Amino acid sequence: QAFFKSIMNAAPSSPTKRHNKISVVGAGNVGMAIAQTILTQDLTDELALVDAVPEKLRGEMLDLQHAAAFLPRTKIQASIDYAVTTGSDLCIVTAGARQINGESRLNLLQRNVTLFQKIIPPLVRYSPDTILLIVSNPVDVLTHVAWKLSGFPSNRVIGSGTNLDSSRFRFLIADHLDVNAQDVQAFIVGEHGDSSVALWSSISVGGVPVLSFLEKQQIAYEKEMLENIHKEVVQSAYEVISLKGYTSWAIGYSVANLARSILRDQRRVHPVSVLAKGFYGIDGGEVFISLPAQLGRGGVLGVTNVHLTEEESQRLRDSAKTILEVQNQLAI
Ligand code: 6V0
Description:
Helix content: 40-55%
Structural class: alpha/beta
Oligomer: single chain
Distance between the termini: 53 Å
Bound molecules: ligand 6V0
Strand content: 15-25%
Number of helices: 9
């Protein structure tokens, strides 16, 4: 305080921007990549980390705090006690059980459901107005589980979904056409996983629709080439995991990008997992699946009415069916 004695009569500083708090549950590879991207991008005033392993959690907290001299000012806290998340505007869940050798995907999922039964209720209790952003896999089913456990309206429960798949897709298209990935508008929708759907009909680069441009110019393109780009997107997570053991940086940037749209009310459109019942002919149950959705301070503000070809909407409905089949086998 002594440092400031001479200017103590100055008008008290009034905060001009809203105070934000983000909590990240799960301080593993993905949670920490998200945390560090959020910090470097100055997206929050407070960051709370929660994990089940106290030593690792404290180690991660200290390691980030020690970077304070190089970062925008952010209060960083961590605890195994959910009280640390009190008053969060956004809670990001990345906690997940690891697959045991020979374990079925369904068994792993059931274990993650049990985990969510411990995680979601305290988050809701300490931050009743928060927005939940689910990242743990299988993300679409677990977003549905989180929605059920939270009792929140569906606009406040979002899954990171195919936001990452779409950025991989944009990178590959940009690489192929030798343009900037930020100029490529392209969406992968549906399940975050093997049955995802590439929306070829709506891809544009700098506002130019790609497929109709190629057709008008009579530039031959092979449907197979397009399918291969999509296959590469589906394979890319497996490839990164087989090479480095997990994925982290791209999911970190992708989730920070969602956090920015939500907390700064950017109203941008992202392919994320939302309650999709009734959209694009998806019926037969309450299912969370990725659709291009507008995100802002209220969470999901709407789903865009993008034109889908008959083949694309059929694939989307099939993708929803795949998720529902898994979901229906779960005990929540
Ligand atoms: P990790 O490195 O094993 O981290 C998981 C963390 O969760 C660990 O630190 C655990 O201690 C912690 N944890 C376990 N149980 C609890 C609990 N009850 N409460 C709090 N914390 C707990 O895994 P990693 O970080 O690599 O992946 C986390 C999850 O993200 C997995 O389910 C991945 O499949 C998923 N991903 C989702 C992606 C997406 O696009 N949606 C992308 C990448 C990974």
